C-alpha cells in the first residue's frame, strides 16, 4: 500500500495543518452550510429556510438552483419573481468563483464520494469500470430533453444530491439507500465514478464556471519533483497535466479546465508549493520558463 | 470508407479512424444514456398518478403541471403553521420531494392568508389563489354508505359540522328512512362547487375508518361526455326551453304495471289501471313508491294475498301493505 504516502512529503514540509488547510476549510464550509439549513428544523433558529433547490435567507435573500430551474423551464414552466432572482444570484456567483465550487464546497454528496475515494486508496482497491468523463454531459442533456418530453423535472425524481440534502433537513426516509449506493459505486465499481463521470449537476455547474476568473494555478511548476501526489488526490486529475506539464508546449500554468472543482487539495498536498489559487488572467509563462516562440494559450480548457 | 480512399490527403486519412471512433463512442453513449432516460421517463409517467390519499397543498397546479413546476424546496412545508404538509420521501408513492398531506392525519386548516402559497417561489402553488375557499385540494366523497352513521339513521353529523364551508360544501339531505318507515335520515352530501378538499371532514369522521374521504379531484370526480347538455341548466341559462315544445311528439310511455299517467298512453298495461290502484282514478300519480314518500297504497296486488303484516312492520297498524311496490314485481 504505497498509497499511504500520499501527502507525506507535504506533511513533513508544511506540518499537518499546512497540508490540510484547504481541506479543513472546505469541510468546514460544507458542514457550516448544512448547519445553517439544520438550525431551523433542529434548533428553531430560522436563518435559512428550504434546501439547495431553493432557499430563503433572513426573509430577504432568495437562492435558486439554476439547474433545477432550467429543467423546470424545459417542462415549460417559469418560476415566480423570487425564484428568478434566486437563479440570477446563484448563476452570477458561480460564474465568478468557478461552477464546480458547488461540487467541492457545497454539495453534501462530495463528502460521501470523497470518503469513498479515500477508503478506496486506503484499501488499495484497484480496477475500475471505464466510463468516459463526457458521460455526465450526456446525462445533462438527457435530463433536459427528458424534462421537456415528460413534463416532469426529471432528474429530481432520482437525484442523490437533492435527496441527501433534503433528507437531512426534512427527514431522510429511504434516501440513505441511494446515498449508500453512490458510496459503494465509487468505492468498488468506478473510481471517482459519480462526481467525475455521471452527475449532471456537476456537469451543469462545470459549464457555468467555464469562464470564471478564480482558478487554481501552478505558478511554481518548475519546482515540481514528479511525486504525483496531486494527481492522486485530485478528483479530476486530467485537468492538472496541461498546467503542470505544459511549459514545454507553451501552455500557461493556470488550470483552465471546467472540470476542476477548485477544491484546493492539490495546493495542500504539494510539498513544493507548486499550486496556488489565482486568477485566470495570470496565465503568462513565468520568467525563465521555456516558452520559446510559442504563445500561451489562455483560451484552452 | 475514407480509409481505402487513397486520393484523400494523408491528414484526412489519418483522422478518419479517430473520427469514426469518436462517432462510435458518441453513439454508444447516446444509446446508454438514452436508455437510462427512457427508464426515467417511464418512472416519471408513473409518478404523475397521485395516489388516492395524497393531497396537494392549496393552489397546486394540475398534477402534470405541478411536477414540472415544483422544485421541491419545502418552503410551503416550512410556512404551514399547522405542520400539514410534508415532502415526499423516496419510499412514498408521491413523486420524490414534492409536498403533500394526508387528510386523515393532519388536514389543511384553510388559513385565510394561505402562507404555503405565498412561500412558493415557483408558482407550483398558484399565486392567483387568494381566497382559500376557492382552493381545490381534492374532493370529499361519502364513500361508505354502509358505515356512515347518518346513513344508518343516526344523527352523527360530525363531518357536516366541522366543515369550514358548512352548508355549502356539505349539506344534510333529508330523506325518509325506509327501514323504520317513520324516521328521517340526514345524508351528508358533498357539493363539488364548494368543497375545498381541506380534509377536515375525513379527519373528523367518527368511524374507525373514515366513511367520508377526500380524494384527488382526478379520482373523485366523474366527467360527462363533452356533448352532454343538462336540459334544466340550459333552460336556466337561456331563460327558456331550447327546443320547440309544441312540435314534440309524445311517444307511448312504459309505466309501471298498474299505473297510469293522465294524458299518456301505455299500450302494455291498457290505458286504465285496475280499479282501486293509484292512477285508475283521476288524481295525482304517486311520485315515489309507497314507503319512499309516496302515499300509502290501499290494496295489495291481486293474487298476492292480503295477509296481515307482522306486528311492528310498517303498515301493521294502518292496514294491508303490498309486499312489493307496484311495478317492482308486485303484479302478476
Ligand atoms: S486540480 Fe486541484 S483544485 Fe482542481 S480539482 Fe484537482 S485537486 Fe482540486
Ligand atoms: S392553507 Fe394553511 S393549513 Fe392549509 S396547507 Fe396552507 S398553510 Fe397549511
Ligand atoms: S414551495 Fe412550491 S416549489 Fe417549493 S416545495 Fe412547495 S410547491 Fe414545491
Ligand atoms: S373537504 Fe370536507 S370539510 Fe373540507 S371543504 Fe370539503 S366537505 Fe368541507
Ligand atoms: S362523520 Fe363520518 S359517520 Fe358521521 S356523518 Fe360524517 S361520514 Fe357519517
Automatic annotation (TrEMBL), chain A:
<protein>
    <submittedName>
        <fullName>Quinol dehydrogenase ferredoxin subunit NapH</fullName>
    </submittedName>
</protein>
<feature type="transmembrane region" description="Helical">
    <location>
        <begin position="167"/>
        <end position="189"/>
    </location>
</feature>
<dbReference type="Pfam" id="PF12838">
    <property type="entry name" value="Fer4_7"/>
</dbReference>
<dbReference type="InterPro" id="IPR051684">
    <property type="entry name" value="Electron_Trans/Redox"/>
</dbReference>
<dbReference type="GO" id="GO:0051539">
    <property type="term" value="F:4 iron, 4 sulfur cluster binding"/>
</dbReference>
<dbReference type="InterPro" id="IPR017900">
    <property type="entry name" value="4Fe4S_Fe_S_CS"/>
</dbReference>
<feature type="transmembrane region" description="Helical">
    <location>
        <begin position="31"/>
        <end position="48"/>
    </location>
</feature>
<keyword id="KW-0813">Transport</keyword>
<keyword id="KW-0479">Metal-binding</keyword>
<keyword id="KW-1133">Transmembrane helix</keyword>
<feature type="transmembrane region" description="Helical">
    <location>
        <begin position="82"/>
        <end position="103"/>
    </location>
</feature>
<feature type="transmembrane region" description="Helical">
    <location>
        <begin position="137"/>
        <end position="155"/>
    </location>
</feature>
<dbReference type="InterPro" id="IPR011886">
    <property type="entry name" value="NapH_MauN"/>
</dbReference>
<keyword id="KW-0812">Transmembrane</keyword>
<feature type="domain" description="4Fe-4S ferredoxin-type">
    <location>
        <begin position="212"/>
        <end position="245"/>
    </location>
</feature>
<keyword id="KW-0249">Electron transport</keyword>
<keyword id="KW-0472">Membrane</keyword>
<dbReference type="InterPro" id="IPR017896">
    <property type="entry name" value="4Fe4S_Fe-S-bd"/>
</dbReference>
<keyword id="KW-0411">Iron-sulfur</keyword>
<dbReference type="GO" id="GO:0005886">
    <property type="term" value="C:plasma membrane"/>
</dbReference>
<dbReference type="GO" id="GO:0046872">
    <property type="term" value="F:metal ion binding"/>
</dbReference>
<keyword id="KW-0004">4Fe-4S</keyword>
UniProtKB/TrEMBL annotation, chain B:
<keyword id="KW-0411">Iron-sulfur</keyword>
<keyword id="KW-0004">4Fe-4S</keyword>
<feature type="domain" description="4Fe-4S ferredoxin-type">
    <location>
        <begin position="60"/>
        <end position="90"/>
    </location>
</feature>
<dbReference type="InterPro" id="IPR017896">
    <property type="entry name" value="4Fe4S_Fe-S-bd"/>
</dbReference>
<keyword id="KW-0249">Electron transport</keyword>
<feature type="compositionally biased region" description="Pro residues">
    <location>
        <begin position="275"/>
        <end position="289"/>
    </location>
</feature>
<keyword id="KW-0479">Metal-binding</keyword>
<keyword id="KW-0813">Transport</keyword>
<protein>
    <submittedName>
        <fullName>Ferredoxin-type protein NapG</fullName>
    </submittedName>
</protein>
<dbReference type="InterPro" id="IPR017900">
    <property type="entry name" value="4Fe4S_Fe_S_CS"/>
</dbReference>
<dbReference type="GO" id="GO:0051539">
    <property type="term" value="F:4 iron, 4 sulfur cluster binding"/>
</dbReference>
<feature type="domain" description="4Fe-4S ferredoxin-type">
    <location>
        <begin position="186"/>
        <end position="217"/>
    </location>
</feature>
<keyword id="KW-0408">Iron</keyword>
<dbReference type="Pfam" id="PF12838">
    <property type="entry name" value="Fer4_7"/>
</dbReference>
<dbReference type="InterPro" id="IPR004494">
    <property type="entry name" value="MauM_NapG"/>
</dbReference>
<dbReference type="GO" id="GO:0046872">
    <property type="term" value="F:metal ion binding"/>
</dbReference>
<keyword id="KW-0677">Repeat</keyword>
<dbReference type="InterPro" id="IPR050294">
    <property type="entry name" value="RnfB_subfamily"/>
</dbReference>
<feature type="compositionally biased region" description="Basic and acidic residues">
    <location>
        <begin position="236"/>
        <end position="256"/>
    </location>
</feature>
<feature type="region of interest" description="Disordered">
    <location>
        <begin position="236"/>
        <end position="332"/>
    </location>
</feature>
Amino acid at each position: 500500500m504505497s498509497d499511504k504516502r500520499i501527502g507525506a512529503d507535504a506533511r513533513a514540509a508544511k506540518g499537518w495543518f499546512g497540508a490540510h488547510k484547504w481541506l479543513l476549510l472546505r469541510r468546514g464550509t460544507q458542514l457550516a452550510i448544512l448547519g445553517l439549513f439544520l438550525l431551523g428544523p433542529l434548533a428553531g433558529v430560522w436563518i435559512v429556510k428550504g434546501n439547495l433547490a431553493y432557499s430563503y435567507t433572513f426573509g430577504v435573500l432568495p437562492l435558486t438552483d439554476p439547474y433545477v430551474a432550467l429543467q423546470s423551464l424545459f417542462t415549460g414552466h417559469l418560476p415566480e419573481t423570487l425564484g428568478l432572482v434566486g437563479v440570477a444570484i446563484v448563476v452570477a456567483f458561480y460564474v465568478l468563483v468557478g461552477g464546480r465550487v458547488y461540487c467541492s464546497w457545497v454539495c453534501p454528496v462530495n463528502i460521501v464520494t470523497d470518503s469513498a475515494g479515500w477508503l478506496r486508496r486506503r484499501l488499495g482497491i484497484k480496477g475500475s469500470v471505464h466510463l468516459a468523463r463526457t458521460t455526465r454531459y450526456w446525462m445533462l442533456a438527457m435530463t433536459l430533453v427528458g424534462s421537456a418530453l415528460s413534463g416532469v423535472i426529471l432528474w429530481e425524481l432520482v437525484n442523490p444530491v437533492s435527496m441527501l440534502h433534503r433528507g437531512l433537513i426534512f427527514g431522510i426516509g429511504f434516501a440513505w439507500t441511494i446515498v449508500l449506493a453512490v458510496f459503494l459505486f465509487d468505492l468498488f465499481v468506478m473510481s471517482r465514478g459519480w462526481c467525475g463521470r455521471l452527475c449532471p449537476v456537476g456537469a451543469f455547474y462545470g459549464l457555468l464556471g467555464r469562464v470564471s476568473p478564480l482558478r487554481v494555478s501552478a505558478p511554481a511548476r518548475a519546482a515540481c519533483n514528479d511525486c504525483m501526489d496531486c494527481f492522486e488526490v485530485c478528483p479530476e486529475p486530467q485537468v492538472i497535466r496541461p498546467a503542470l506539464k505544459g511549459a514545454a508546449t507553451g501552455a500557461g500554468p493556470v488550470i483552465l479546465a471546467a472540470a476542476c472543482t477548485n477544491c484546493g487539495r492539490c495546493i495542500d498536498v504539494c510539498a513544493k508549493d507548486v499550486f496556488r489559487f489565482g486568477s485566470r488572467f495570470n496565465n503568462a509563462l513565468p520568467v525563465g520558463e521555456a516558452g520559446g516562440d510559442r504563445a500561451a494559450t489562455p483560451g484552452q480548457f | 470508407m475514407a480509409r481505402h480512399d487513397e486520393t484523400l490527403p494523408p491528414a484526412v486519412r489519418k483522422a478518419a479512424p479517430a473520427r469514426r471512433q469518436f462517432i462510435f463512442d458518441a453513439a454508444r453513449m447516446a444509446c446508454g444514456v438514452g436508455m437510462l432516460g427512457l427508464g426515467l421517463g417511464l418512472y416519471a409517467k408513473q409518478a404523475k398518478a397521485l395516489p388516492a390519499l395524497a393531497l396537494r397543498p392549496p393552489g397546486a397546479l394540475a398534477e402534470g403541471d405541478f411536477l414540472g413546476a415544483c422544485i421541491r424546496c419545502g418552503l410551503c412545508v416550512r410556512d404551514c403553521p399547522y405542520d400539514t404538509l410534508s415532502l415526499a420521501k423516496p419510499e412514498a408513492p408521491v413523486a420524490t420531494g414534492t409536498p403533500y398531506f394526508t387528510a386523515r392525519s393532519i388536514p389543511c386548516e384553510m388559513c385565510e392568508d394561505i402562507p404555503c402559497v405565498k412561500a412558493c417561489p415557483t408558482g407550483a402553488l398558484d399565486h392567483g389563489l387568494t381566497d382559500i375557499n376557492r382552493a381545490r385540494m381534492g374532493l370529499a366523497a361519502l364513500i361508505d354508505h354502509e358505515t356512515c352513521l347518518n346513513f344508518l339513521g343516526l344523527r352523527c353529523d360530525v363531518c357536516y359540522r366541522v366543515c369550514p364551508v358548512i352548508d355549502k360544501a356539505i349539506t344534510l339531505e333529508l330523506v325518509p328512512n325506509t327501514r323504520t318507515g317513520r324516521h328521517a335520515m340526514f345524508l351528508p352530501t358533498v357539493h363539488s362547487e364548494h368543497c375545498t378538499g381541506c380534509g377536515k371532514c375525513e379527519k373528523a369522521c367518527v368511524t374507525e375508518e373514515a366513511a367520508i374521504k377526500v380524494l384527488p379531484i382526478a379520482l373523485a370526480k366523474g366527467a360527462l361526455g363533452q356533448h352532454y347538455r343538462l336540459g334544466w341548466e340550459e333552460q336556466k341559462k337561456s331563460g327558456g326551453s331550447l327546443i320547440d315544445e309544441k312540435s314534440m311528439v309524445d311517444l307511448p310511455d312504459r309505466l309501471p304495471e298498474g299505473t297510469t299517467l293522465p294524458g299518456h298512453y301505455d299500450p302494455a298495461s291498457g290505458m286504465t289501471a285496475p280499479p282501486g290502484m293509484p292512477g285508475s282514478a283521476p288524481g295525482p300519480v304517486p311520485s315515489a313508491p309507497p314507503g319512499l314518500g309516496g302515499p300509502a297504497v290501499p290494496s295489495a296486488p291481486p293474487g298476492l294475498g292480503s295477509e296481515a303484516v307482522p306486528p311492528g312492520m310498517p303498515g301493521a297498524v294502518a292496514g294491508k301493505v303490498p309486499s312489493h311496490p307496484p311495478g317492482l314485481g308486485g303484479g302478476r
